[in-house]
Amino acid sequence: MIVRRSAAVLATTAVIGTAFAPAALAADSSPSPSASQAMPSGLYGSTDPTYDGVWRQSLALLAQDTVGVEPAAKAVDWLTGQQCASGAFAPYRADATAKCDAKTMVDTNNTAAAVQALAALGGHDAETGKAVAWLKSVQNKDGGWGYVAGGASDANSTSVVIGALAAAGEKPADVSQGGKSPYDALMTLSIACAGEGSGGGFAFQPDKKGKLAANADATAAAVLGSLGKGFVTTAGKTTTSGYVCGATEKLTPAEAARNGASYLSNALNGTPYLKSAMPGAKDQPDYGNTADAVVALAADGWTEDAQKPLAWLEKNYGAWAAKAGPAAYAQLIFAAHATGTDPRDFGGADLVKQLGATGPATDASDHSAAASDEKKDEKKKDDDKGLGVWWIVGVGLVAGIGIGFLISGRNKKQQL
Question: Which residues contact 10 (CB under 8 A, 6 or more apart)?
């Protein structure tokens, strides 16, 4: 559930069927702001925010809140200022004082990501209430959501909205259209088991012939969605030893999530990372999708299976995250949090500090991150006491090339 692809590349891809995301591309292809374009002082990241501003801001704020860091007020204000009167969010509005109109490309993924962040921060009931009302108003008759209002439902968009509903105190199962809930929509995208090691995953959307093809990006998102969880979660307590993808006539969301986790585990059996599905990237690692898979596996209790890809990320994330920016660091923090790993000692590096360096200085210093190794534990205790192209890009963000967790580089999937 979660957008990761570069706007430059997404703009050249064909629309297939998207985000967190928003799916995943090399962030180094992201365009930089033009000399005449001043970057908002409250915005995280230094690349062009046109296609992922709200997404990366939401993930950054949510990640900071998850580790007990109070974001800068102007960073939060920037996000709330991006909201349209309808309650929806677009990826980026350069002039937030201008009224949103029919040309403002609002979408479900950025709106749902903003809800998750603002709900976690607290004190933003008015903004989250309006956003949730808008999301409900554009729910499809099959119970799901597409990237844009009225678009065909997909696994990534539906899942990121489920996370938003849960974060806002709603019961996703009770949010329905035509008698269908978001879980009904996800179950139609769950692929039946066809023996050990195959099946069990989720498709982003059916193809033109109505057939389903599993991909890891949509599956990682849908596992969380089926469990009623958002980007931030902790490890489940179920045991998975010897589990074989289960085939029943009608799966419950929990059963579909378990099958999806089994699919991800099998996909990670040969290598400790998931491979990119982008053209020309054969056998290349998909860092963002791997991080999302770690979160999904942990959420369903597959903690042992999550350890190998997590360890691989700890050793190899550096160059990718430095190029991909704030959403990448946020995804890694979510993966660390889900597995009980210290994000301030992630392969010997401090993810919290690295994320913070991509945005405005926080209002309350994160002393535990800045302290020396000898004083880190003591300081942490002290702190604890104180505590056109638009359509192509939009769909690409969420689905990737037939993949989807919206914004590596789940909405730009960065839904990477």
Answer: 25, 51, 392, 393, 396, 397, 412
Burial of 239 (0-12, 13-18, 19+ CB in 10 A): exposed
pLDDT value of position 144 = 98
| Of 277, 338, 270, 331, residue with least CA distance to 306 | 338
Q: Do 86 and 130 meet the contact criterion of CB atoms below 8 Å apart?
A: yes
Token pair for 103: 């040309």
Contact in structure between 174 and 187 (CB atoms under 8 Å):
no
The CA distance from 266 to 31, in Å, is 36
Please name which of 216, 221, 234, 351 lies closest in space to residue 271, comparing C-alpha atoms. Answer: 216
Average pLDDT along the chain, 416 residues, taken 10 residues at a time: 36 31 37 59 96 98 98 98 98 97 97 98 98 98 97 98 98 97 97 74 95 95 98 85 76 94 93 88 91 97 96 98 98 98 98 98 56 40 46 49 39 39
Phi, psi dihedral angles at 289 (to 5 degrees)? -65, -35
Domain edges within the chain:
7-399
Cα–Cα distance between 236 and 22 in angstroms, integer?
Answer: 25
- The 8 Å CB, 24+ separation contacts for 378-382 are none
Query: Residues 255, 246: contact at Cβ < 8 Å?
Result: yes
Residues 20, 43: Cα–Cα separation, whole Å: 18
Q: What is the pLDDT of residue 83?
A: 98
Q: What is the domain class of 7-399 according to CATH? A: mainly alpha
For position 335, what pLDDT does the model report?
98
Helix then strand then coil, in percent of the chain rounded to 5, is 45, 5, 50
Q: For the chain, what is the radius of gyration of the CA atoms? A: 19
| pLDDT given at position 277 | 81
Q: What is the pLDDT of residue 324?
A: 97
Q: Compute the distance between CA of residue 115 and CA of residue 80 in angstroms, rounded to an integer.
A: 10
Task: Tell me the β-bridge partners of 174.
Answer: none
Secondary structure element (H or E) that encloses residue 66, with its range: helix 53-66
CB 244 within 8 A of CB 263: no
- pLDDT for the residue numbered 249: 72
**Rounded Cα gap, residues 14 and 204, in angstroms:** 15
